[in-house]
Design brief:
Radius of gyration: 32 Å
Number of strands: 7
Bound molecules: heme C
Order of helices and strands: HHHHHHHHEEEEEHEHHHHHHHEH
Length: 468
Amino acid sequence: MRNFVLALTRNPISMVGAAIVTFSSAIVFTLFLLEVVGFEGGPYIGILAYLIFPAVLAIGLILIPIGIRRENRHAAQRGEGPLFPVIDLNHGRTRRIVLTVVALSVVNVIIFATATYKGVEVMESNEFCGTACHSVMQPEHTAYVRSPHARVKCVECHIGAGADWFAKSKLSGAWQVISVTFNLYSRPIGTPVHDLRPARETCEECHWPTRFVGNKLRVIDRHADDEANTPLKTVLLLRVGGQRADDSHGIHWHVDPDVEIRYRSDPSRENIYDVEMRHRETTKTFLSPLQAEEGWEEEAGELEWRTMDCVDCHNRPTHIYSTPEREVDAALAAGHLPSLPYLRREAIAAMGEDYDSHEAARAGIRERIEGFYRESYPEMMASQPDVVAGTGDRVAELYTFNVFPAMNVTWGTYPDHIGHEVSTGCYRCHDDEHATADGETISQDCQVCHSVLAWDEEDPEVLDTLEF
Ligand code: HEC
Ligand code: HEC
Ligand code: HEC
Ligand code: HEC
Ligand code: HEC
C-alpha cells in the first residue's frame, strides 16, 4: 500500500491528474450549485459546467492511473516492491483508504451521470443551437423567433426522436463545433439541408398529412407606391384540400399516402428535371424541355433524386426570410409603421441598398429616410422629427431581421417555395412545360391551386359580399 501511495505522489503525471480532478470537480460543483440557487448564466455557463469541465475532469482521471503505471514500472526496474498494492482489509488504515476510494468513485460517477444528462439538455436547448454559435446561426435564429414555430425546439425538426438520429446528429454537431472553431463553415450556410431528417418523422409528429384542410380564404394586405400608401387587397381561395375517403384533391394531394412523387434536380432543387408520379394505378413521367436536347446531362451538372414531402413546399416553415415589399406591407397593415407620405416606396428603396453591417444599415437607412422627408416634406420634418427618426429605426430593424452581411445572407438568399411570387416555388414543376410523352403537362392553370378573387384592389367586391 505504501508503494502505491508513493507511486501516486512521487510521479508528476498523477500529481497533475489529481490536481486537475480536484480543480475541475470543484468548478463543476460550484457551477451546479449556482444553477440550483437560481443563477441564470445563459448557454455559456451550461457549456462550461456540463461539457467542458467534465471533459477536463475525465482527462485528469485518466492521467492518474497512467502516472501510477509508469512509476510502478520504474519501481519494478529498480527492484522495489510489488507492481500493485496488496490490499489487506484487516488493516484499519487500508480499510479506510479503500472506503475513501470507493466513496470518491461514487462521487465521480454521480458527477459524470449528471454532466451527461445536463450536457445533452444543454446541447438540445435553443440557446445552444441558435446563439452559442452566435454569428453563424444568427440568421436562422432571428427568423425562427418571429415564426409560427418559435415555441418548437430546433431539435424537434432537426433531430427528432430515436437513438440513431440522436447519434447521427451528435456526430454532425461535433463536426459543426469544429467547423465553427476553425472557421471552416460556409457563409451563408448552404440550403437545402441534404441530410435533413425526413418530414415523415419530424413535421408529422405534430401535423399529419391525412388531415383534410379544405379551402382556405387568404386576404393579403399590400399597399400602392403612392403618396398615401393606399391599402390594396388580394383575396385568394386556396385549394389546400387533403386526403378524402374517396380520392384526394387540392394542394395537399401531393402528400396523400396513395401518391408518390419523385423528382431529379440539381443540388439547389431550384431546377427540376424528371418528375415521376404514382397515384394508385396511374403512373406518369414528366420531362423538362431541356431533356430533349443532346448532352443535357453535362449542362445540368450534378443531379440527385428525391421523393417529395412537406419540405419541398414548406421549406421555410420557421426560417422565414421576407422581401422588402412584404415586410413594409405587413408593418403598415399592422400599424407598426405610420403611413407617412410615400413611405412604402422610400422604405423599400432604403432596404434594397447594400450595407456592410447591421450598424451601417441602421445609420444608412435612418439617414436616407430622414433625408427624403427633410427635402420633400420640410414642414413635417420640422414638426415631427421624432416620428420620422422612429420610422427610420423601425425600417432598419425590418432590414436586420432579413439581411446578415457577416454571413452573406441577403434578400433572396433562401428562396421560399410556397407559391410563386418571391421565387419559382410551385412553378419549378407547374410550368406547363414539364411534359409526358403524350404531351400532358404539369398544369399552371391558376384555378388548379386557387381562385384569385381579387388582385391588388382598393375595395374588392368579394369582401363586400362577405360583409368584411
Ligand atoms: C418547424 C421546424 C424547424 C425548427 C423548429 C427549426 N428548423 Fe432549422 N430548418 C428547418 C427546415 C425545414 C430547414 C430547411 C430545409 C431545406 O430547405 O432543406 C431548416 C434549415 C436550417 C438551417 C440551414 C439554412 C437554411 O435556412 O436553410 C440551419 C442552420 C437551421 N435550420 C438551424 C436551426 C436552428 C438553430 C433552430 C432553432 C433556433 C432551428 N433550425 C429550428 C426546420 C426547422
Ligand atoms: C413540435 C410540434 C411541431 C413540429 C415538429 C412542427 N410543427 Fe408546424 N406547427 C406547430 C404548431 C403548434 C403550429 C401552429 C402555430 C400557430 O398557429 O401559431 C404549427 C403551424 C404550422 C404551419 C402553419 C403556419 C402558419 O403560417 O399559420 C405550417 C405550414 C407548419 N406548421 C408546417 C410544419 C412543417 C413543414 C414542419 C416540419 C419541418 C412542422 N410544421 C413541424 C407545431 C409543430
Ligand atoms: C405541394 C406543396 C405542399 C406540400 C407537399 C405540403 N403542403 Fe402544407 N400547405 C401548402 C400550401 C400552399 C398551404 C396553404 C398556405 C397558406 O395558408 O398560405 C399549406 C398549408 C398547410 C398548413 C396550414 C393548414 C391550416 O389549417 O391552415 C399546414 C399545417 C401544413 N400545410 C402542413 C403540411 C405538412 C405537415 C405537410 C407534409 C405532410 C405538407 N403541409 C405538405 C403546400 C404544401
Ligand atoms: C416536384 C414537382 C412539383 C412541385 C414542386 C409542385 N407540384 Fe403540384 N403537382 C405535381 C404533379 C406531378 C402533379 C400531378 C399532375 C397530373 O396529374 O397531371 C401535381 C398536381 C397538383 C395539383 C392538382 C392535384 C389534384 O389532383 O387535385 C395541385 C392543386 C398542385 N399540384 C398544387 C401545387 C402547389 C400549390 C405547389 C407549390 C406550393 C406545387 N403543386 C408544387 C408536381 C409538383
Ligand atoms: C401550382 C399552384 C399554383 C398555380 C398554378 C398558380 N398559383 Fe398563384 N399561388 C399559389 C399559392 C400556393 C399561393 C399562396 C402563397 C402564399 O401562401 O403566400 C399563390 C399566390 C398567388 C397570388 C398572391 C401573391 C402575393 O403574395 O401577393 C397571386 C396574385 C396569384 N397567386 C396569382 C396567380 C395567377 C394569376 C395564376 C395563373 C397564371 C397562378 N397564381 C397560378 C399557387 C399557384
